[in-house]
Structure formats: structure tokens, C-alpha cells
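F.,

This is the one I mentioned.
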């Protein structure tokens, strides 16, 4: 396999105002590409300053991006995609939690905003590619098709949140940081050498549109006013109450506010969330063991696989890999784990890998729990 072609391209660099996207834009320009920077205004009411290392897309961030573009010596614009972001990412996020699922808004943003709305506009304006600061690589396979691979540095790999990109989008994607075997400190040192003021700016964490990091409070503001519900154990016995099932995720241990311990004295975890009857079911850690799942809305980074195959799967942005067999049947992906895994929730994405190559992703719809022995 070879790296992406090096001929000069017209590149639109998405600049968040952070260090990664600034260095990516600088590298693209240094490689001889005709680069234009763009900051996406994704909030209808941006705050003047971010809260510590949380949030993004603030007025401060747009100014940081503009200053970086000036230093690099490239044109810079701000594009307002706030309405599209609200509809495709924020409202989707709230609706998924309301339905008892656990979404990943970063995947949705990459799919709907950065490599759909932004890319479509870029292509319409005559650009060849969109450049971002993600840590992943796009290579050309022996058959001439573009492939998405993990970053050279696994510690920084972000291919999971890019698993929603299809072949067309990959053909116009550029990730200049993906083949960098350096630490984040070295990226910051590079930014400093280039004179970029964002060199020491903290990374943003958590969900960008929840600046204070209080996801439950954010959801309560939008879904609050619901009737108090019951927390049940596996036998259906009431062990506590809650103020909204939307405030829980599968595998959650903290914040359950259960008045008395389990009979065996062990911690209890959220096993199931039922918005229909507003109940949350809790139980022991071993009850979280999942042996298989089905996933819908598959998106393939190239040709869809045919027949059953053996892959590795990643189930969360910073999670490890696990060996699976998977088969696509009538637009539903059926995945079986070689060893049981925990913390798998409907709404999450399962991303399949063949070595370092990203095969594709799908949204988890149902899970199959491992049968447990019962006392007889």
C-alpha cells in the first residue's frame, strides 16, 4: 500500500481552534497543497470562553483558528453550520437517550457535518479534499481504492470515530497527523516551532456541545419533567427510584442511589433501561456479559463484506479490540464475540477492523447476554 497521492490539491482545512487541526493545516500547506482554513460555527449561542478544557466552537475558538491561519499564511473563513449541527447531532443525541440508547455524537458529527455538509460544500466550491486533525491514515490499496487505517500511533488513534466514512468521503479526506509516531507533547512542540499560539491550549474533552460536562443536567433540561421511575433488580423487586431513565447508561455503576446493598454485597450496575415503563434494571457485573449483537445502518469504508468473516471489533472510542465473527444479512450486521464483553449498549457503534484497516461501522440495535447458572 502507498500513501495518498502527493500532487498539489485544493484543500479545505477544518480548523477547530485546537492544536491538532492547526498543525494538520500547517502540514498540508507545507506539503505544497493550496490550503484554505475554515472554522465551523456549530453553536447558535457561542460563549466567549470555553470552560477549562471542555467544549469547543466558541468565539474564543474561532479567534484561535483565525490566528493560526494567519501564521500559516492561508485564507480563513467561518462557516455557519449551527442549524445543521443542531438537527443532525444535538437533536439526534437527545432523541437517542430518550429512547434508552447510548449514542456517540462524535461519529454523528463526522458523518453528517464534517464529511457530509462540509465536504459537499467544499466539493461544490472546487476543493479536492477536506483536511482535519484526526489521528488516522488514508492509504491507497493494491486495487487502487482508498482505505481507512488506524493511526501509526495506537495511543492516539481516532479511526473509531471515522468508521462512518464511506468510500466517496474517504476519496476526499486528508489526515496529515495519522502517520506521526510522536507524542502529543511533540505535536505541541511542533506547533510552538511553527509559531502557533494554540501550542499550549488544552484539548477539549467529552461532548463538545455540553461545555460544563454535565450530560445528565443537559438531558434533564430537555427531557425533564418526567415522572419518577423505579430502579429494579433482576427479579423485578424495587430497590430504588430515579428522576428519569435518560440519566443512565448500560454498565453504569456510580450514581444509582440505591438505598441498600445487594444480598451478596457486591456492586450493582445498570443492566437495562426501559423508557416505555420508565424503569432501570440493575444487577451484578457478570450480568453485563454480552456474547453477540445485531447492528443496523451499516456504513462501509469501501466494498461491503460478503459472507461471514473474522475481524476485530472496537466498541467505544477509547476501548480495546476484541475478536469477532460478523456477517451482513439484509442490511443487519450480526456480530458474535469470541469472548464475552461488557459495557455494550444499544446506540453505540461497533467498528470492524481487518488488521489496521477499518472495514466499516454500524449502530448497535440489540445485544445477547451470556446465560448464567442459577442456583437450584
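My design for it:
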Amino acid at each position: 500500500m502507498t500513501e495518498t497521492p502527493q500532487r498539489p490539491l485544493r484543500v479545505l482545512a477544518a480548523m477547530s481552534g485546537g492544536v491538532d487541526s492547526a498543525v494538520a493545516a500547517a502540514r498540508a500547506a507545507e506539503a505544497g497543497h493550496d490550503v484554505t482554513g475554515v472554522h465551523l460555527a456549530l453553536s447558535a449561542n457561542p460563549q466567549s470562553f470555553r470552560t477549562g478544557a471542555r467544549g469547543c466552537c466558541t468565539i474564543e475558538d474561532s479567534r484561535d483558528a483565525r490566528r493560526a491561519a494567519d501564521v500559516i499564511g492561508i485564507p480563513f473563513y467561518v462557516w455557519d453550520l449551527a442549524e445543521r449541527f443542531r438537527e443532525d447531532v444535538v437533536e439526534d443525541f437527545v432523541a437517542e437517550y430518550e429512547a434508552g440508547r447510548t449514542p456517540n455524537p462524535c461519529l454523528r458529527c463526522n458523518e453528517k457535518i464534517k464529511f457530509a455538509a462540509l465536504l459537499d460544500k467544499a466539493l461544490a466550491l472546487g476543493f479536492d479534499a477536506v483536511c482535519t486533525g484526526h489521528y488516522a491514515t488514508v492509504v491507497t490499496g493494491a486495487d487502487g481504492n482508498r482505505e481507512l487505517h488506524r493511526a501509526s500511533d495506537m495511543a492516539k488513534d481516532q479511526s473509531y470515530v471515522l468508521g462512518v466514512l464511506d468510500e466517496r468521503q474517504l476519496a476526499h479526506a486528508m489526515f496529515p497527523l495519522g502517520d506521526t509516531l510522536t507524542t502529543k507533547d511533540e505535536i505541541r512542540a511542533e506547533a510552538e516551532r511553527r509559531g502557533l499560539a494554540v501550542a499550549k491550549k488544552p484539548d477539549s474533552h467529552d461532548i463538545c456541545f455540553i461545555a460544563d460536562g454535565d450530560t445528565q443536567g443537559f438531558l434533564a433540561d430537555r427531557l425533564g419533567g418526567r415522572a419518577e421511575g423505579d430502579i429494579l433488580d433482576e427479579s423485578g423487586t424495587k430497590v430504588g427510584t430515579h428522576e428519569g431513565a435518560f440519566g443512565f447508561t448500560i454498565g453504569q455503576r456510580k450514581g444509582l442511589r440505591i438505598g441498600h446493598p445487594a444480598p451478596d454485597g457486591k456492586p450493582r450496575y445498570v443492566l437495562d433501561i426501559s423508557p416505555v415503563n420508565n424503569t432501570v434494571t440493575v444487577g451484578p457485573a457478570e450480568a453485563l456479559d454480552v456474547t453477540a449483537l445485531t447492528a443496523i445502518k451499516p456504513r462501509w469504508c469501501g466494498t461491503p463484506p460478503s459472507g461471514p468473516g473474522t475481524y476485530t471489533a472496537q466498541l467505544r472510542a477509547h476501548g480495546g479490540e476484541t475478536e469477532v465473527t460478523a456477517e451482513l444479512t439484509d442490511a443487519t450486521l450480526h456480530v458474535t464475540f469470541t469472548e464475552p464483553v461488557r459495557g455494550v449498549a444499544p446506540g453505540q457503534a461497533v467498528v470492524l477492523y481487518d488488521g489496521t484497516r477499518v472495514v466499516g461501522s454500524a449502530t448497535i440495535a440489540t445485544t445477547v447476554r451470556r446465560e448464567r447458572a442459577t442456583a437450584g
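The first helix runs from residue 19 to 30.

Talk soon.
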